[in-house]
UniProtKB/TrEMBL annotation:
Residues 25-146 form the Bacterioopsin transcriptional activator GAF and HTH associated domain. The keyword Transcription applies. The keyword Transcription applies. Pfam families: BAT, HTH_10. PANTHER family: DIMETHYL SULFOXIDE REDUCTASE TRANSCRIPTIONAL ACTIVATOR. Keywords: Transcription, Transcription regulation. Transmembrane segments: none annotated. This is Helix-turn-helix domain-containing protein.
Length: 214
């Protein structure tokens, strides 16, 4: 059974971490990560900073073999980068463990990675690599992917899944919350009560589908 794991890593332990020294307010989001034998070729968004400023910082990054600006939207840009396989680090650990990167988001303080693995030995191999190379990782959560039902993964309907993910990605579960039910409902264009019901039922189904509540 496949496994989902999330780790946090100090910003400096990821190749793009140096950018936060110059631009502490930006957020970097990995758009797509494709593991291959000797490199990872990701697309990543850099948000909250004029693109030309970020390009100057990227040119000074030794871990990047090359990069291309794909979309320039002014205060955010989509880049495609080829990493230098000669520079060992967390990306090498991801390749060696044959992990699939579901998502990765970086801020001034840390990076958060969510991985999918075919079995837990891959997660253990990644942890061992990081320990051997003095990369400080913290395991946030680890769980097996549950069986699907007719409604979807963990019994969530598509609408419930959308509500739960939107709340999570917008910081509703942070302390203090970074958004509220009214703002989330407005983003989906539905009534506050409708969104609240979707989120409550989705959370209930998620708990029942992932935890032993018997």
């Amino acid at each position: 059974m496949s496994t989902i794991a999330a780790f946090t890593v100090p910003a400096d332990d990821f190749p793009l971490g140096h950018i936060f020294d110059s631009f502490p307010e930006i957020t970097i989001e990995i758009e797509q990560v494709v593991p291959v034998t000797d490199a990872i070729l990701p697309y990543f968004w850099v948000r909250e900073e004029p693109v030309e400023h970020v390009q100057t910082a990227l040119e000074a990054q030794g871990a990047l073999k090359s990069y291309t600006l794909v979309d320039d939207l002014g205060d955010q840009g989509l880049f495609r980068a080829e990493w230098d396989p000669a520079v060992e680090g967390i990306l090498t650990g991801i390749i060696d463990a044959d992990l699939t990167v579901i998502s990765a988001t970086g801020t001034e303080d840390k990076w958060k990675f969510e991985f999918r693995a075919e079995d837990t030995t891959q997660i253990a191999a990644f942890q061992e690599y990081c320990a051997d190379h003095d990369i400080a990782i913290t395991l946030e959560y680890l769980h097996s992917v549950g069986a699907r039902t007719d409604e979807g993964a963990y019994g969530l309907t598509p609408e419930q899944r959308e509500a739960v993910l939107l709340a999570y990605k917008n910081g509703y579960y942070e302390t203090p919350p970074e958004t509220n039910l009214a703002e989330l409902a407005e983003e989906l264009g539905i009534a506050n009560q409708s969104f609240s019901d979707r989120l409550r039922r989705g959370t209930r189904n998620l708990i029942e589908g992932t935890l032993d509540v018997t």
